[in-house]
Amino acid sequence: MTRHAAGGRSPGTDELVRRLAREAGHAASRGPPRNLVFAGFVAAALGASVLVVLAMIGARADLPAIAGSWILLFKVTGMLLLAVGGLRLVRAAMTPGTEPHPISALAPAAVFLALSAVLDRSGVPPAGARPLLSALLCLGGITLAALPALGLTLLAMRRGIPTRLGRAGLYAGLLAGAIGALAYTLACVNDGAAFVALWYPLAVLTVAGIGAALGPRALAW
Amino acid sequence: MSMHEIPWREGLLAERRGDAMAYEAFLRDFAASMRRIVAMRLRRLRLTADEAEDVVQEVLIAVHARRAEWDAGRPLVPWLNAIARYKTIDAVRRLRRQARGRVDLSEEEWSAIFVAEESGREHHAMDVESLIVVLPPGQQAAVRAVAIEGASHREAADRLGTTEGALRVTLHRSLKRLMAAVRQGDGQ
Question: Name one Pfam family in it (chain A) (predicted).
Fold first, then answer.
């Protein structure tokens, strides 16, 4: 059993080390820069989510009229903040030795949404203009829109080195959910801040859960 | 900061310049360090020396394959640690699965080899004795206790002053070796 006792060198390992050392200077770093590829995946994820929303629900009829107004801008800002937080977490999760900080990454979006909900004067109840239907449409729409984004985000993460796969999948889901929600703002007709602050994050959390479940299999290397 | 940070960082940077000697020195040093960690951390899993060495090799290969992805602007040791942790957990999971399969199988294999024959016990014992001379003494004792004297794994382990799990591994090893010996004998 102690053919090579503690501290002793294994002949197999010696041979392996020599073989690996001969490949010095030949690391595969061809192709476009890593950051550019990652940015490409995120852009593709946003594109895919927008396509799903437009194909499934279609843009809201008065979109051109409200395009520059706070009604739309508020939702876009909230989801952009969330996406940026997700982006930071995903980047950290695919870089070994880098600790993701979920609280500080998600705080800006959380504070923004909470303040907006508190200051909400729209009169739209938190459950939406047509309770249940509005909420279900929002949850389902964001989740479906986020699924292709989740696939692309996981693919992008596979090009990095994720080492805690469940957590990495969770962050991928957070980012994909935020991207899906961002796309869903084009279709969403519920303009109450309380509604958005409640249901959008719930939908994003749903996608994060899916990501966490998929992570260990999808990200293994 | 780890005491390894500076020499190892230099080793990996040398690799990027194509310096095989410096890279080899890094790999050796890192492997020695991993070997100590694996031996220390995984002691309670009762990995054999071969299995522990497999884990070390898998970590080496993973680091080698991903070496271009280390950002030289970041500390190296935490990067290596995260990869080593991931690959070690991965390898231990696989070893556990194998160990389960190994224990499940061995009982049937043993009964098939030693108990099926309805020849007299003396004859049977002689056969076994003549077979097991190829084994090292420790394995001989284990096989003798279980296959000839018919002790249960528990009893045999107690008698030989080892644990049941370790005894099963020893039996499995001897079985593999015996089968190899038989196969070799057939070939001649």
Answer: NrsF
Indicate left, alpha or beta for B120 from its phi (over 0: left) and psi (-120 to 50: alpha).
beta
List, as one string, the DSSP characters of B131-179: HHTTS-HHHHHHHIIIIIS---HHHHHHHTTS-HHHHHHHHHHHHHHHH
Please report the pLDDT score of residue B26 as a whole number: 95
Say yes or no for a CB contact (<8 Å) between A20 and B15.
Answer: no
From B42's Cα to the closest Cα of chain A, the distance in A is 13
Fold of the B117-187 domain:
Arc Repressor Mutant, subunit A (1.10.10)
**Phi, psi angles (nearest 5°) of residue A104:** -70, -30
Cα distances from A178 to residues A41, A81, A93, A135, in angstroms, run 15, 9, 17, 17
Beta-carbon separation of B53 and A5 below 8 A: no
User: What ranges in chain A are assigned the alpha helix state H?
Assistant: 11-21, 34-56, 63-66, 70-93, 102-118, 133-158, 165-184, 193-218
The reply to whether residue B86 touches residue A163, judged by beta carbons under 8 angstroms, is: yes
Question: What span, in angstroms and rounded, lies between the C-alpha atoms of B166 and B162?
Answer: 7
Which residue of chain A is at minimal alpha-carbon distance from B13? A25
Q: From the CA of A106, how many Å to the nearest CA of chain B?
A: 24
Residue with tokens 């194509």: B18
Are residues A96 and B16, on separate chains, in Cβ contact within 8 Å? no
How many structural domains are present in chain A?
Answer: 1
Contact A93, A167 (CB under 8 A): yes
Does the predicted interface ipTM exceed a cut of 0.90?
no
Residue A180 lies in a domain: yes
Contact between A179 and A149 under an 8 Å Cβ cutoff? The reply is: yes
Tell me which residue range forms the domain holding A213: 34-218
pLDDT tens digits along B124-153: 566 667 777 778 788 888 888 887 777 788
**pLDDT tens-digit readout, A98-141:** 989 999 999 999 999 999 988 887 777 777 777 788 889 899 99
CA-based R_g, chain A, Å: 22
Examine residue A82 and state whether it is found in any structural domain, yes or no: yes
Whether A182 maps to a domain, the answer reads yes
Give the separation between CA B57 and CA B139, rounded to whole angstroms: 27
Second CATH level (architecture) for the domain B5-98: Orthogonal Bundle (1.10)
Size of interface A-B (CB pairs under 8 A): 102
